Each structure stands twice: as structure tokens, then as C-alpha cells.
Amino acid sequence: MRYFALSCLVGTLLLSATPALTQTAPARPLVRALTLRINGQAIKADTISSRFFLSQDRTLTLNVVRADDPDGEGLTILIDRFPLKTGTYSFQEILSGRNRDASYRFGSTAAYSKSCPDNPGSVTITAINAERHWLAGSFRCTVCESGRGGKRLTMEGTFRYPVESN
Predict the structure, then answer these.
(1) How many degrees, rounded to 5, is the angle at CA 151 between CA 145 and CA 153?
(2) Is the separation of the CB atoms in 119 and 99 below 8 Å?
């Protein structure tokens, strides 16, 4: 009787442990997250129209579209020669051999980082999920309206977003 009770207990323990060993947690869905602030004011970003794109020559383009102008251009940031790794990618003049700059269009406003005498800007990539083609990080840049007396706009935000490629 002791052996029977012991074998029942061992069998029960093995059966209850087996599903835990064979189950794997389902992959959590990645949810698009995108924020945009202009001169500190939060602007709702359109997560459907916004696009992040990596070209064959490894130019990463971040295009953040405003929710109140889904057909507009919004903010576009280019990072030439993106090495597909985490880090901070600061803007540089085109003479450096890298093109890292930003442009912004909303209604009649057109602004460019190269229109500013000082065009600080950077994109910080904090996480890359190459298997699922996602990036996470933040951006900050200064763009200046083209034309005389143009305003400086500080654009910043965060993202967790899919990257398209060709």
C-alpha cells in the first residue's frame, strides 16, 4: 500500500510538472508608442501614418506625422549609415560624410535643422528587436523656419516602433 501511494504521488507530481516544462510564454505583442513635443507642448502623433524606414544603403528615416495633419509631412529625421546597433546618433553637417538632419512641415510652416546656425539634434536608440523589426528610443532636434525671422522649434519625443525596409 505504501508503494502504491508513493507511486501515485510521484505520478501526480510528474503530470502536474510536465505542462509547465513544455509550455512557452506567447510572444507579447509589441504596441506602437510614439510621442512628439514641440517647444515643450505635447502634440498627438499619428501612429498609423508615421513611418520608420531603413533603406538598403542603411539610411534610417524617422517620419513622425501629427494626428491633426495625417496627410502632412510632419517631422522627418535622417540618419545616414545607421549601423543597426544601440547608441546616440548626433546630427552632423553633410561635409562629415554623414547626413543626419531633420526637417518639419506643418501647414505653411517649413523648418530645417540646417537653417539653424546651431543645429543640435540626436536620435538615441535604446533597444533593437531585429527579429521583429522594432526600434525603441528617443529623439531631440532643433529646426528653424526658413525665411527671414523664422522661429526655432525644439522637437522631441520617444518611440517604440516597427521599422520597414526594402
Answers:
(1) 85
(2) no
Contact predicate 160/33, CB 8 Å? yes
* Contact call for residues 77 and 54 (beta carbons, < 8 A): no
- Beta-ladder partners of 140: 122, 156
- Mind listing the pLDDT tens digit for each residue in 110-137? 999 888 888 788 999 999 998 889 999 9
Q: What pTM, to 2 d.p., does this model score?
A: 0.78
pLDDT digit string, tens, across residues 35-83: 999 999 999 999 999 999 999 999 999 999 999 999 999 999 999 889 8
**165 φ, ψ to 5°?**
-150, 165
DSSP letter for 145, please.
E
Ramachandran category for residue 12: left, alpha or beta (phi over 0 → left; psi -120 to 50 → alpha): alpha
Nearest CA to 49 out of 28, 66, 24, 30 is that of: 66
Grid cell 495633419 is found at 69
> From residue 110, how far is each of 45, 94, 147, 163 by CA, in Å?
18, 20, 9, 26
